[in-house]
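Risk register update: the risk of archive-format incompatibility is retired. Evidence:
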Amino acid sequence: MYKTDVLVIGAGVAGLSFAIKFAEQRSDLKITLLTKSHKQAGNTAWAQGGVATVWDFDTDSFNKHVDDTLIAGDGLCDEDIVNIVVKEGHDRVKEIISWGTRFDKEEGGDYNLGMEGGHSEHRILHYKDVTGKEIQRSLVEKAMTFPNIELKEHYFAIDLLTQHHLGRNITRLSPNTECYGVYALNKENNEIETILAKTTIMATGGAGQIYRNTTNPTIATGDGIAMFYRAKGLLSNMEFVQFHPTALFNPAGENPDFLISEAVRGFGAILKTPKGESFMENYDPRLSLAPRDIVARAIDNEIKTRGLEFMSLDCRHLDQTEFLEHFPNIYEKCKSLGIDVFKDLIPVLPACHYLCGGIHIDQHGRTSVKGLYAAGECTSSGLHGANRLASNSLLEGLVFGERIAKVLAAEIDNFSLEENIPDWDAEGTDVPKELVLITQSWKELKEIMSNYVGIVRTNTRLKRAMDRLNLLYNETELLYKNTNVSTQLCELRNVITIGYLVTSSAIMRRESRGLHYNTDYPEKYDYLETTWL
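Archived output:
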Protein backbone atom coordinates (compact mmCIF):
# COMPACT_ATOMS: atom_id res chain seq x y z
CA MET A 1 0.00 0.00 0.00
CA TYR A 2 1.41 3.35 -1.13
CA LYS A 3 0.26 6.66 0.38
CA THR A 4 0.49 10.20 -1.00
CA ASP A 5 -1.22 13.53 -0.47
CA VAL A 6 -2.03 14.17 -4.13
CA LEU A 7 -2.18 11.55 -6.86
CA VAL A 8 -2.00 12.71 -10.49
CA ILE A 9 -2.94 10.11 -13.11
CA GLY A 10 -1.27 11.20 -16.33
CA ALA A 11 1.90 13.20 -16.98
CA GLY A 12 1.06 15.36 -19.98
CA VAL A 13 0.52 19.12 -20.12
CA ALA A 14 -2.45 19.10 -17.71
CA GLY A 15 -0.98 16.77 -15.11
CA LEU A 16 2.49 18.30 -15.12
CA SER A 17 1.33 21.92 -15.06
CA PHE A 18 -0.93 21.11 -12.10
CA ALA A 19 1.90 19.37 -10.24
CA ILE A 20 4.28 22.27 -10.76
CA LYS A 21 1.81 24.94 -9.67
CA PHE A 22 0.65 22.92 -6.66
CA ALA A 23 4.22 22.15 -5.58
CA GLU A 24 4.99 25.86 -5.65
CA GLN A 25 2.15 26.52 -3.21
CA ARG A 26 2.32 23.43 -0.97
CA SER A 27 5.89 22.28 -0.53
CA ASP A 28 4.75 20.44 2.61
CA LEU A 29 2.69 17.90 0.66
CA LYS A 30 3.70 14.92 -1.46
CA ILE A 31 2.62 14.83 -5.12
CA THR A 32 2.78 11.54 -7.02
CA LEU A 33 2.35 11.35 -10.81
CA LEU A 34 1.58 8.07 -12.56
CA THR A 35 2.22 7.53 -16.25
CA LYS A 36 1.50 4.21 -17.90
CA SER A 37 4.44 4.64 -20.26
CA HIS A 38 7.51 6.84 -19.87
CA LYS A 39 7.57 10.52 -18.96
CA GLN A 40 7.96 11.78 -22.54
CA ALA A 41 5.01 9.78 -23.92
CA GLY A 42 1.35 10.76 -24.22
CA ASN A 43 -0.77 12.95 -26.46
CA THR A 44 0.96 16.19 -25.40
CA ALA A 45 4.27 15.11 -26.90
CA TRP A 46 2.51 14.27 -30.19
CA ALA A 47 1.00 17.74 -30.69
CA GLN A 48 2.50 19.31 -33.80
CA GLY A 49 0.77 22.59 -34.56
CA GLY A 50 1.20 24.71 -31.44
CA VAL A 51 -0.62 26.55 -28.70
CA ALA A 52 -3.12 29.31 -29.49
CA THR A 53 -2.96 32.54 -27.52
CA VAL A 54 -3.30 36.23 -28.27
CA TRP A 55 0.21 37.63 -28.59
CA ASP A 56 0.14 40.56 -31.01
CA PHE A 57 -2.36 42.92 -29.36
CA ASP A 58 -1.96 45.44 -32.21
CA THR A 59 -3.87 43.17 -34.59
CA ASP A 60 -5.42 40.55 -32.31
CA SER A 61 -7.53 40.59 -29.14
CA PHE A 62 -9.00 38.28 -26.51
CA ASN A 63 -12.45 39.01 -27.93
CA LYS A 64 -11.40 37.75 -31.37
CA HIS A 65 -10.00 34.54 -29.90
CA VAL A 66 -13.18 34.07 -27.85
CA ASP A 67 -15.37 34.62 -30.91
CA ASP A 68 -13.34 32.14 -33.00
CA THR A 69 -13.67 29.52 -30.26
CA LEU A 70 -17.43 30.06 -29.93
CA ILE A 71 -17.96 29.86 -33.69
CA ALA A 72 -15.98 26.61 -33.94
CA GLY A 73 -17.89 25.17 -30.95
CA ASP A 74 -21.16 25.52 -32.86
CA GLY A 75 -23.34 26.78 -30.02
CA LEU A 76 -22.30 24.39 -27.26
CA CYS A 77 -19.37 26.23 -25.67
CA ASP A 78 -19.65 27.58 -22.15
CA GLU A 79 -18.88 31.25 -22.81
CA ASP A 80 -17.61 31.84 -19.27
CA ILE A 81 -15.11 28.98 -19.64
CA VAL A 82 -14.02 30.24 -23.05
CA ASN A 83 -13.29 33.69 -21.59
CA ILE A 84 -11.39 32.15 -18.67
CA VAL A 85 -9.17 29.97 -20.85
CA VAL A 86 -8.48 32.61 -23.49
CA LYS A 87 -7.61 35.35 -21.01
CA GLU A 88 -5.73 33.29 -18.44
CA GLY A 89 -4.05 31.26 -21.16
CA HIS A 90 -1.89 34.21 -22.18
CA ASP A 91 -0.24 34.31 -18.74
CA ARG A 92 0.12 30.52 -18.63
CA VAL A 93 2.00 30.55 -21.96
CA LYS A 94 4.27 33.35 -20.75
CA GLU A 95 4.90 31.22 -17.67
CA ILE A 96 6.03 28.12 -19.53
CA ILE A 97 8.31 30.31 -21.64
CA SER A 98 9.92 31.47 -18.38
CA TRP A 99 10.33 27.77 -17.48
CA GLY A 100 12.33 27.18 -20.64
CA THR A 101 9.80 26.35 -23.36
CA ARG A 102 11.06 27.47 -26.78
CA PHE A 103 8.90 28.81 -29.61
CA ASP A 104 10.04 29.79 -33.11
CA LYS A 105 11.03 33.42 -33.65
CA GLU A 106 11.55 35.72 -36.60
CA GLU A 107 15.00 37.12 -37.36
CA GLY A 108 14.13 40.30 -35.48
CA GLY A 109 13.30 38.36 -32.31
CA ASP A 110 9.49 38.47 -32.45
CA TYR A 111 7.62 35.20 -32.20
CA ASN A 112 6.59 33.63 -35.49
CA LEU A 113 2.81 33.36 -35.13
CA GLY A 114 1.09 30.69 -37.20
CA MET A 115 -2.42 30.56 -38.64
CA GLU A 116 -4.74 27.54 -38.40
CA GLY A 117 -8.28 26.67 -39.40
CA GLY A 118 -11.04 28.64 -37.68
CA HIS A 119 -8.70 31.39 -36.45
CA SER A 120 -9.21 34.95 -37.65
CA GLU A 121 -5.65 36.03 -36.82
CA HIS A 122 -2.12 34.64 -36.65
CA ARG A 123 -1.83 33.55 -33.00
CA ILE A 124 -0.30 30.06 -32.94
CA LEU A 125 2.99 29.83 -31.03
CA HIS A 126 4.93 26.81 -32.26
CA TYR A 127 8.29 25.09 -32.18
CA LYS A 128 8.91 23.76 -35.68
CA ASP A 129 6.41 20.88 -36.06
CA VAL A 130 7.08 19.33 -32.63
CA THR A 131 5.52 21.92 -30.30
CA GLY A 132 3.99 19.36 -27.96
CA LYS A 133 7.29 17.53 -27.56
CA GLU A 134 9.00 20.80 -26.64
CA ILE A 135 6.34 21.72 -24.08
CA GLN A 136 6.48 18.20 -22.59
CA ARG A 137 10.28 18.45 -22.29
CA SER A 138 10.22 21.76 -20.47
CA LEU A 139 7.42 20.75 -18.11
CA VAL A 140 9.11 17.48 -17.14
CA GLU A 141 12.38 19.30 -16.46
CA LYS A 142 10.59 21.94 -14.38
CA ALA A 143 8.60 19.35 -12.40
CA MET A 144 11.72 17.38 -11.54
CA THR A 145 13.19 20.44 -9.75
CA PHE A 146 10.63 20.01 -6.94
CA PRO A 147 11.62 17.52 -4.21
CA ASN A 148 7.98 16.86 -3.30
CA ILE A 149 7.07 15.65 -6.81
CA GLU A 150 7.59 11.96 -7.60
CA LEU A 151 6.96 10.66 -11.11
CA LYS A 152 6.26 6.91 -11.34
CA GLU A 153 6.71 5.56 -14.85
CA HIS A 154 5.10 2.37 -16.22
CA TYR A 155 2.18 2.37 -13.79
CA PHE A 156 -1.23 1.53 -15.26
CA ALA A 157 -4.21 2.79 -13.25
CA ILE A 158 -6.91 0.10 -13.30
CA ASP A 159 -9.80 1.47 -11.24
CA LEU A 160 -10.66 4.36 -8.93
CA LEU A 161 -11.21 3.55 -5.26
CA THR A 162 -14.57 4.69 -3.87
CA GLN A 163 -17.07 3.70 -1.15
CA HIS A 164 -17.78 0.69 -3.37
CA HIS A 165 -14.52 -0.80 -2.10
CA LEU A 166 -15.74 -0.31 1.48
CA GLY A 167 -18.71 -2.55 0.76
CA ARG A 168 -21.26 0.14 -0.02
CA ASN A 169 -23.58 0.22 -3.04
CA ILE A 170 -22.75 3.19 -5.28
CA THR A 171 -24.91 4.30 -8.23
CA ARG A 172 -24.92 7.40 -10.46
CA LEU A 173 -27.63 8.82 -8.22
CA SER A 174 -25.67 8.28 -5.00
CA PRO A 175 -24.84 11.57 -3.27
CA ASN A 176 -21.30 12.33 -2.10
CA THR A 177 -19.40 9.62 -3.95
CA GLU A 178 -15.77 9.91 -2.83
CA CYS A 179 -12.43 8.95 -4.40
CA TYR A 180 -9.64 7.48 -2.27
CA GLY A 181 -7.01 6.69 -4.90
CA VAL A 182 -6.52 3.83 -7.38
CA TYR A 183 -5.54 0.25 -7.92
CA ALA A 184 -2.56 0.38 -10.28
CA LEU A 185 -0.57 -2.26 -12.14
CA ASN A 186 3.18 -1.87 -11.74
CA LYS A 187 4.24 -2.93 -15.23
CA GLU A 188 7.82 -3.54 -14.09
CA ASN A 189 6.91 -6.45 -11.80
CA ASN A 190 3.24 -7.13 -12.78
CA GLU A 191 2.11 -6.49 -9.21
CA ILE A 192 -1.12 -4.59 -8.51
CA GLU A 193 -0.61 -1.88 -5.90
CA THR A 194 -3.12 0.03 -3.80
CA ILE A 195 -2.30 3.74 -4.04
CA LEU A 196 -4.12 5.91 -1.51
CA ALA A 197 -4.40 9.69 -1.79
CA LYS A 198 -6.24 12.54 -0.12
CA THR A 199 -7.13 13.86 -3.56
CA THR A 200 -6.75 12.55 -7.10
CA ILE A 201 -6.28 14.49 -10.36
CA MET A 202 -7.38 12.79 -13.58
CA ALA A 203 -5.25 13.94 -16.51
CA THR A 204 -5.22 10.84 -18.69
CA GLY A 205 -5.76 12.39 -22.12
CA GLY A 206 -7.83 11.12 -25.02
CA ALA A 207 -9.13 7.92 -26.59
CA GLY A 208 -8.16 7.96 -30.27
CA GLN A 209 -7.37 4.24 -30.33
CA ILE A 210 -11.08 3.39 -30.55
CA TYR A 211 -10.80 4.08 -34.30
CA ARG A 212 -8.92 2.37 -37.12
CA ASN A 213 -7.29 5.62 -38.22
CA THR A 214 -6.03 7.93 -35.48
CA THR A 215 -3.21 10.39 -34.93
CA ASN A 216 -3.15 9.50 -31.21
CA PRO A 217 -0.35 7.34 -29.76
CA THR A 218 -1.14 3.73 -28.89
CA ILE A 219 -1.53 4.60 -25.20
CA ALA A 220 -4.55 6.87 -25.90
CA THR A 221 -7.18 4.38 -24.78
CA GLY A 222 -9.51 6.57 -22.70
CA ASP A 223 -8.48 4.97 -19.41
CA GLY A 224 -9.39 7.91 -17.18
CA ILE A 225 -12.84 8.41 -18.68
CA ALA A 226 -13.61 4.68 -18.49
CA MET A 227 -12.44 4.49 -14.85
CA PHE A 228 -14.52 7.52 -13.97
CA TYR A 229 -17.61 6.04 -15.63
CA ARG A 230 -17.18 2.78 -13.71
CA ALA A 231 -16.89 4.88 -10.53
CA LYS A 232 -20.36 6.32 -11.34
CA GLY A 233 -19.10 9.80 -12.22
CA LEU A 234 -20.87 12.28 -14.50
CA LEU A 235 -19.81 12.55 -18.17
CA SER A 236 -21.04 14.87 -20.90
CA ASN A 237 -20.96 15.36 -24.70
CA MET A 238 -19.12 12.13 -25.54
CA GLU A 239 -20.49 12.09 -29.10
CA PHE A 240 -18.18 14.91 -30.22
CA VAL A 241 -15.12 13.16 -31.62
CA GLN A 242 -12.86 15.38 -33.71
CA PHE A 243 -11.30 13.89 -36.83
CA HIS A 244 -8.23 15.73 -38.03
CA PRO A 245 -8.75 16.33 -41.76
CA THR A 246 -5.19 15.63 -42.86
CA ALA A 247 -3.49 12.51 -41.59
CA LEU A 248 -0.90 11.11 -43.98
CA PHE A 249 -2.28 8.21 -46.05
CA ASN A 250 0.15 5.30 -45.86
CA PRO A 251 -0.89 2.33 -48.03
CA ALA A 252 1.19 0.02 -45.84
CA GLY A 253 -0.79 1.12 -42.79
CA GLU A 254 0.62 2.34 -39.48
CA ASN A 255 -0.63 3.07 -35.97
CA PRO A 256 -0.82 5.90 -35.20
CA ASP A 257 -1.34 7.71 -38.49
CA PHE A 258 1.22 10.43 -39.09
CA LEU A 259 -0.30 13.90 -38.71
CA ILE A 260 0.09 16.56 -41.37
CA SER A 261 -0.38 19.55 -39.09
CA GLU A 262 -3.11 22.10 -39.75
CA ALA A 263 -0.29 24.64 -39.62
CA VAL A 264 0.71 23.40 -43.08
CA ARG A 265 -2.61 24.66 -44.44
CA GLY A 266 -2.14 27.81 -42.40
CA PHE A 267 1.19 28.17 -44.19
CA GLY A 268 -0.65 28.11 -47.54
CA ALA A 269 -1.12 24.47 -48.55
CA ILE A 270 -4.32 23.75 -50.49
CA LEU A 271 -6.61 20.72 -50.35
CA LYS A 272 -7.11 19.11 -53.75
CA THR A 273 -8.22 15.87 -55.36
CA PRO A 274 -5.48 13.41 -56.42
CA LYS A 275 -5.88 14.91 -59.93
CA GLY A 276 -5.02 18.36 -58.59
CA GLU A 277 -8.51 19.90 -58.53
CA SER A 278 -9.48 22.09 -55.57
CA PHE A 279 -12.81 21.28 -53.92
CA MET A 280 -13.19 23.20 -50.65
CA GLU A 281 -14.89 26.09 -52.46
CA ASN A 282 -17.89 23.76 -52.73
CA TYR A 283 -18.17 23.48 -48.94
CA ASP A 284 -17.09 26.67 -47.17
CA PRO A 285 -15.90 30.20 -48.10
CA ARG A 286 -12.93 29.75 -45.74
CA LEU A 287 -11.71 27.02 -48.09
CA SER A 288 -8.86 24.87 -46.68
CA LEU A 289 -8.85 26.85 -43.42
CA ALA A 290 -12.46 26.19 -42.44
CA PRO A 291 -12.97 24.61 -38.98
CA ARG A 292 -11.99 20.97 -38.69
CA ASP A 293 -15.48 19.50 -38.58
CA ILE A 294 -16.32 21.09 -41.93
CA VAL A 295 -13.03 20.17 -43.61
CA ALA A 296 -13.09 16.57 -42.33
CA ARG A 297 -16.65 16.03 -43.59
CA ALA A 298 -15.74 17.57 -46.94
CA ILE A 299 -12.76 15.26 -47.41
CA ASP A 300 -14.79 12.27 -46.23
CA ASN A 301 -17.53 13.10 -48.74
CA GLU A 302 -15.06 13.56 -51.62
CA ILE A 303 -13.38 10.23 -50.82
CA LYS A 304 -16.69 8.34 -50.70
CA THR A 305 -18.40 9.94 -53.72
CA ARG A 306 -15.30 9.57 -55.90
CA GLY A 307 -14.58 6.02 -54.67
CA LEU A 308 -11.01 6.89 -53.63
CA GLU A 309 -8.87 6.16 -50.58
CA PHE A 310 -7.57 9.69 -49.99
CA MET A 311 -7.56 13.33 -51.04
CA SER A 312 -4.41 15.44 -51.42
CA LEU A 313 -2.60 18.43 -49.99
CA ASP A 314 -0.71 20.66 -52.40
CA CYS A 315 2.47 22.27 -51.03
CA ARG A 316 4.29 22.60 -54.35
CA HIS A 317 3.84 26.37 -54.56
CA LEU A 318 5.19 27.10 -51.07
CA ASP A 319 8.59 28.60 -50.23
CA GLN A 320 10.88 25.60 -49.86
CA THR A 321 13.34 27.12 -47.39
CA GLU A 322 10.63 28.31 -45.03
CA PHE A 323 8.73 25.02 -45.32
CA LEU A 324 11.82 23.04 -44.33
CA GLU A 325 12.42 25.39 -41.42
CA HIS A 326 8.86 25.07 -40.08
CA PHE A 327 8.03 21.46 -40.95
CA PRO A 328 11.24 19.39 -41.00
CA ASN A 329 9.65 16.23 -39.58
CA ILE A 330 6.72 16.34 -41.99
CA TYR A 331 9.13 16.73 -44.89
CA GLU A 332 11.27 13.80 -43.75
CA LYS A 333 8.28 11.55 -43.10
CA CYS A 334 6.88 12.19 -46.58
CA LYS A 335 10.32 11.67 -48.08
CA SER A 336 10.58 8.27 -46.35
CA LEU A 337 7.46 7.21 -48.26
CA GLY A 338 8.79 8.46 -51.59
CA ILE A 339 6.82 11.73 -51.53
CA ASP A 340 8.64 14.93 -52.45
CA VAL A 341 6.37 17.64 -51.04
CA PHE A 342 7.80 20.18 -53.50
CA LYS A 343 6.97 18.00 -56.52
CA ASP A 344 4.20 15.66 -55.39
CA LEU A 345 0.77 16.02 -53.82
CA ILE A 346 0.62 14.65 -50.26
CA PRO A 347 -2.08 11.95 -49.88
CA VAL A 348 -4.25 12.67 -46.82
CA LEU A 349 -7.38 11.35 -45.12
CA PRO A 350 -9.26 12.19 -41.89
CA ALA A 351 -8.22 10.39 -38.69
CA CYS A 352 -9.54 10.48 -35.14
CA HIS A 353 -7.65 13.23 -33.36
CA TYR A 354 -9.39 14.62 -30.27
CA LEU A 355 -12.28 13.88 -27.92
CA CYS A 356 -14.25 17.02 -27.01
CA GLY A 357 -16.47 15.35 -24.40
CA GLY A 358 -15.51 13.50 -21.25
CA ILE A 359 -15.50 13.95 -17.48
CA HIS A 360 -17.77 16.86 -16.63
CA ILE A 361 -15.92 19.54 -14.63
CA ASP A 362 -16.64 22.99 -13.24
CA GLN A 363 -14.51 26.12 -13.59
CA HIS A 364 -11.97 24.76 -11.10
CA GLY A 365 -11.74 21.22 -12.41
CA ARG A 366 -14.02 19.69 -9.79
CA THR A 367 -15.93 16.56 -10.86
CA SER A 368 -19.10 14.95 -9.52
CA VAL A 369 -16.91 12.69 -7.33
CA LYS A 370 -15.63 14.27 -4.13
CA GLY A 371 -11.84 14.43 -3.93
CA LEU A 372 -11.42 13.90 -7.66
CA TYR A 373 -10.45 16.71 -10.04
CA ALA A 374 -9.78 16.48 -13.78
CA ALA A 375 -8.08 18.48 -16.53
CA GLY A 376 -7.16 18.18 -20.19
CA GLU A 377 -8.57 16.04 -22.98
CA CYS A 378 -10.26 13.57 -20.64
CA THR A 379 -12.64 16.35 -19.56
CA SER A 380 -15.69 18.17 -20.83
CA SER A 381 -15.04 21.68 -19.53
CA GLY A 382 -17.24 23.63 -21.93
CA LEU A 383 -14.30 25.15 -23.80
CA HIS A 384 -14.63 23.14 -27.01
CA GLY A 385 -18.40 22.72 -27.26
CA ALA A 386 -19.29 20.66 -30.32
CA ASN A 387 -15.93 21.16 -32.06
CA ARG A 388 -12.48 22.16 -30.79
CA LEU A 389 -10.78 25.18 -32.30
CA ALA A 390 -7.28 24.23 -33.47
CA SER A 391 -4.48 24.56 -30.88
CA ASN A 392 -6.81 25.33 -27.97
CA SER A 393 -6.13 21.98 -26.27
CA LEU A 394 -2.65 22.66 -24.86
CA LEU A 395 -3.98 26.00 -23.63
CA GLU A 396 -6.83 24.27 -21.80
CA GLY A 397 -4.44 21.89 -20.05
CA LEU A 398 -2.25 24.74 -18.84
CA VAL A 399 -5.15 26.84 -17.59
CA PHE A 400 -7.02 24.08 -15.75
CA GLY A 401 -3.82 22.66 -14.30
CA GLU A 402 -3.19 26.04 -12.66
CA ARG A 403 -6.82 26.55 -11.62
CA ILE A 404 -7.04 23.17 -9.89
CA ALA A 405 -3.73 23.79 -8.12
CA LYS A 406 -4.94 27.12 -6.83
CA VAL A 407 -8.25 25.87 -5.41
CA LEU A 408 -6.83 22.57 -4.14
CA ALA A 409 -4.05 24.29 -2.22
CA ALA A 410 -6.82 25.74 -0.05
CA GLU A 411 -9.17 22.73 -0.07
CA ILE A 412 -6.86 19.78 0.45
CA ASP A 413 -6.68 20.17 4.22
CA ASN A 414 -10.37 19.21 4.29
CA PHE A 415 -9.52 15.75 2.90
CA SER A 416 -7.99 12.77 4.68
CA LEU A 417 -6.68 9.34 3.72
CA GLU A 418 -9.08 6.42 3.76
CA GLU A 419 -6.90 3.51 4.85
CA ASN A 420 -9.47 0.71 5.07
CA ILE A 421 -9.31 -0.15 1.38
CA PRO A 422 -8.72 -3.89 0.81
CA ASP A 423 -5.84 -5.11 -1.31
CA TRP A 424 -6.52 -6.23 -4.87
CA ASP A 425 -8.21 -9.63 -4.94
CA ALA A 426 -7.03 -11.87 -7.79
CA GLU A 427 -8.42 -15.09 -6.36
CA GLY A 428 -9.89 -17.40 -8.99
CA THR A 429 -8.12 -15.82 -11.95
CA ASP A 430 -5.53 -17.44 -14.20
CA VAL A 431 -3.08 -16.54 -16.96
CA PRO A 432 -4.97 -15.94 -20.25
CA LYS A 433 -4.50 -18.94 -22.53
CA GLU A 434 -5.49 -17.26 -25.80
CA LEU A 435 -4.25 -13.71 -26.34
CA VAL A 436 -5.99 -13.75 -29.72
CA LEU A 437 -9.22 -13.12 -27.80
CA ILE A 438 -7.85 -9.71 -26.81
CA THR A 439 -6.24 -8.72 -30.12
CA GLN A 440 -9.22 -9.81 -32.22
CA SER A 441 -11.73 -7.98 -29.98
CA TRP A 442 -9.67 -4.81 -30.33
CA LYS A 443 -9.72 -5.13 -34.13
CA GLU A 444 -13.48 -5.60 -34.03
CA LEU A 445 -13.93 -2.54 -31.82
CA LYS A 446 -11.95 -0.36 -34.24
CA GLU A 447 -13.94 -1.64 -37.23
CA ILE A 448 -17.27 -1.09 -35.46
CA MET A 449 -16.45 2.48 -34.49
CA SER A 450 -14.89 3.40 -37.84
CA ASN A 451 -17.70 1.99 -39.95
CA TYR A 452 -20.72 2.91 -37.83
CA VAL A 453 -19.78 5.80 -35.52
CA GLY A 454 -17.42 7.82 -37.69
CA ILE A 455 -17.55 11.25 -39.32
CA VAL A 456 -21.03 10.66 -40.79
CA ARG A 457 -23.59 8.67 -38.78
CA THR A 458 -27.08 7.24 -39.26
CA ASN A 459 -29.58 5.71 -36.85
CA THR A 460 -29.14 2.30 -38.47
CA ARG A 461 -25.36 2.42 -38.13
CA LEU A 462 -25.55 3.55 -34.50
CA LYS A 463 -28.00 0.77 -33.62
CA ARG A 464 -25.77 -1.81 -35.28
CA ALA A 465 -22.74 -0.44 -33.41
CA MET A 466 -24.54 -0.66 -30.07
CA ASP A 467 -25.60 -4.27 -30.68
CA ARG A 468 -22.05 -5.34 -31.50
CA LEU A 469 -20.51 -3.32 -28.67
CA ASN A 470 -22.80 -5.05 -26.17
CA LEU A 471 -21.54 -8.42 -27.38
CA LEU A 472 -17.91 -7.31 -27.13
CA TYR A 473 -18.53 -5.87 -23.66
CA ASN A 474 -20.01 -9.11 -22.32
CA GLU A 475 -17.21 -11.22 -23.78
CA THR A 476 -14.51 -8.93 -22.40
CA GLU A 477 -16.02 -8.63 -18.92
CA LEU A 478 -16.11 -12.44 -18.68
CA LEU A 479 -12.46 -12.57 -19.73
CA TYR A 480 -11.59 -9.85 -17.21
CA LYS A 481 -13.23 -11.73 -14.33
CA ASN A 482 -11.48 -15.02 -15.09
CA THR A 483 -7.94 -14.03 -16.08
CA ASN A 484 -5.02 -12.18 -14.55
CA VAL A 485 -5.01 -8.47 -15.19
CA SER A 486 -2.75 -7.16 -17.96
CA THR A 487 -2.33 -3.79 -19.60
CA GLN A 488 -3.69 -5.18 -22.88
CA LEU A 489 -6.83 -6.56 -21.26
CA CYS A 490 -7.49 -3.41 -19.24
CA GLU A 491 -7.02 -1.21 -22.29
CA LEU A 492 -9.42 -3.38 -24.27
CA ARG A 493 -11.96 -3.08 -21.49
CA ASN A 494 -11.53 0.71 -21.52
CA VAL A 495 -11.79 1.25 -25.28
CA ILE A 496 -14.97 -0.84 -25.41
CA THR A 497 -16.39 1.37 -22.63
CA ILE A 498 -15.41 4.53 -24.55
CA GLY A 499 -16.96 3.14 -27.74
CA TYR A 500 -20.18 2.50 -25.84
CA LEU A 501 -20.19 6.01 -24.36
CA VAL A 502 -19.56 7.72 -27.71
CA THR A 503 -22.27 5.64 -29.38
CA SER A 504 -24.79 6.15 -26.58
CA SER A 505 -24.33 9.91 -26.68
CA ALA A 506 -24.56 9.92 -30.49
CA ILE A 507 -27.91 8.09 -30.25
CA MET A 508 -29.18 10.68 -27.76
CA ARG A 509 -28.32 13.68 -29.95
CA ARG A 510 -31.13 13.84 -32.50
CA GLU A 511 -29.65 16.69 -34.51
CA SER A 512 -26.48 17.45 -36.46
CA ARG A 513 -24.12 19.84 -34.74
CA GLY A 514 -20.36 20.36 -34.90
CA LEU A 515 -18.53 17.06 -34.98
CA HIS A 516 -21.71 14.99 -34.75
CA TYR A 517 -23.41 14.61 -38.15
CA ASN A 518 -26.39 12.24 -38.46
CA THR A 519 -28.04 12.10 -41.89
CA ASP A 520 -31.33 11.08 -40.25
CA TYR A 521 -31.30 14.38 -38.29
CA PRO A 522 -29.57 16.86 -40.62
CA GLU A 523 -30.98 19.96 -38.88
CA LYS A 524 -29.57 21.76 -35.84
CA TYR A 525 -31.97 22.62 -33.01
CA ASP A 526 -31.77 25.22 -30.26
CA TYR A 527 -33.45 23.16 -27.57
CA LEU A 528 -30.91 20.31 -27.44
CA GLU A 529 -27.79 21.15 -25.45
CA THR A 530 -25.63 18.85 -23.32
CA THR A 531 -25.86 15.06 -23.42
CA TRP A 532 -25.24 13.39 -20.06
CA LEU A 533 -24.06 9.93 -19.11
